[in-house]
Amino acid sequence: MITLEVNGHRHDVDVDPSTPLLYVLRGELALNAAKFGCGLGQCGSCTVMVDGEAIYSCITPVSTLAGRRITTVEGLGTVDKPGPVQRAFIEEQAAQCGYCIPGMMMRAQALLEKNPGASEDEIRKALEPNLCRCGTHMRILRAVARAGKLMGAK
Amino acid sequence: MQWSRVIALLALACASCTAPAPMEGHAPGPRTFPASDIAKGANLAALGNCVTCHTAPGGKPFAGGYALKTPFGTVHGTNITPDEATGIGRWSEEDFRRALREGLNPAGHHYYPAFPYAYFTHLTDEDIHALYAFVMTREAVHAETPANTVVVPRFAVAIWNARYLHPGPARSDPARDASWNRGAYLADSLAHCSDCHTPRDKLGGEKSAEYLSGGDVDGWHAPALNEHSPSPVPWNVEALETYLATGLADHHAISAGPMRGVVDNLGRASHGDVHALAVYIAGMERSSPHRARGSEAADSSAQRGKQVYAGACADCHTRGRSADGGALPLEEAIALAIPTPSNLIHIVRDGIVPREDRAQPWMPAFRGALTDEQLVDLLAYLRTIDGVEWNDLNEQVRKADKEPG
Known about the structure:
The complex is a heterodimer.
Chain A: E1 2-6, E2 9-13, H1 21-28, E3 47-50, E4 53-56, E5 69-71, H2 84-91, H3 101-114, H4 120-127, H5 137-153
Helix pairs in contact in A: 2-5, 3-5
Chain B: H1 3-15, H2 35-47, H3 50-53, E1 67-70, E2 73-76, H4 93-102, H5 117-120, H6 125-135, H7 156-164, H8 178-188, H9 194-197, E3 215-217, E4 220-222, H10 237-246, H11 259-266, H12 271-282, H13 300-317, H14 342-350, H15 372-386, H16 393-399
Antiparallel strand pairs in B: 1-2, 3-4
Helix pairs in contact in B: 2-6, 4-6, 8-12, 10-11, 10-12, 13-15, 15-16
């Protein structure tokens, strides 16, 4: 049994210790924001935050996560009260098919928590590990910049 | 058709085919060289990996600004474009030769030995001429080189030179074939292999008795290339040539760290010269199979590390390289066989990023996914695979540069 802290809630999960976090989030905890893309840590659609850092949940075994703080898009806000990154992505209409967006949002959240005033270059560099195949990159970049302003303003 | 454009085109065409000798002395202005000299110089510059240290991250090629960290402070690669104010546009070929051979700028001041003149000193006049033709025909870029932060005064370099600078031709051996001799010349002069792959003493000079026995650079270990090579799979000429030209050979780890720039450049160099380097270096390597394997993980840290490995690494690394994401079995990885875990720490944290211009194996970065303690556990397990003696793993992880390598 491993205890995981996800979005501030503790969950006891009974899985093999080498199980990737993504499978536990989706399969055990019904937190479906993080997506399975490549399963190899290559595309970024599974990105979540652990202790404030963006990580690939598809290649991170739960055995390494006991006692650590896991954040997914579900932890950034609600439909009624979206967080600044969620608000900015809605306002910029940054999603096309939407599959990459939760990973983009978590990578952006990790960046902006450290550096809400990130420049476009810094945003591009930070988001490099995350792929989008629809091509909404320009909207995503605008959304992250907007989120930075929202976070800096609060 | 505008005549001025025709004349300009003719002038451009002539610039690459006529051969007025460059002016000796401080003669500013554009220089022209035969295309063959420039092409020869381009090949030599690739073999010398010049562009890596003479280009700032994201900057224009050869315009300087790359920060090279040394134990004595940070030295910046200079602007070697033909810009007259901030580059070497006013240099004569003799100035250029003196810089390469003696480590002196035109005013007679010493360069720090981070500039590999102790190797370039062995270059032939013809090769220096070709390199001059190449750099003097690059785009002139106005870019001031940032100031160095070296604690050693420049005049002290004269003392260093008396001890470590040995001008004269590179080694040659009439008993060996032309490839070997070409490889020896390139390795010891332009390619400056031993700059990283030979250990250094406290004054930053090469320990010549330990030529190519492995050294440390930029927080990475450059493995031994001689009979002390720790490579789990012995190198041969063919594998080494492939590796040097592409950064990747079967049953060997992909190039990483400071070697990345080297192979990127060697990929643009002539096949014959890369072959010659491989002939020379592989000729030094041992050909016997690797030593006995290490023992099974015993301590509790290694046991925890084995679990980290099982969850985070094994899925790819037990499959072997394959199109579906399989990776090199770690028994074949040199990072697990060298005397320090520094390379492995960098690779686990930052992964292996493929080159932008070709499909290559990659490895995801585990920065943030593993805590420092979990990384220590992983190292404690992985050191048992080859039986290497890595000590003070906590300290090693702490001191490894936390910035992407």
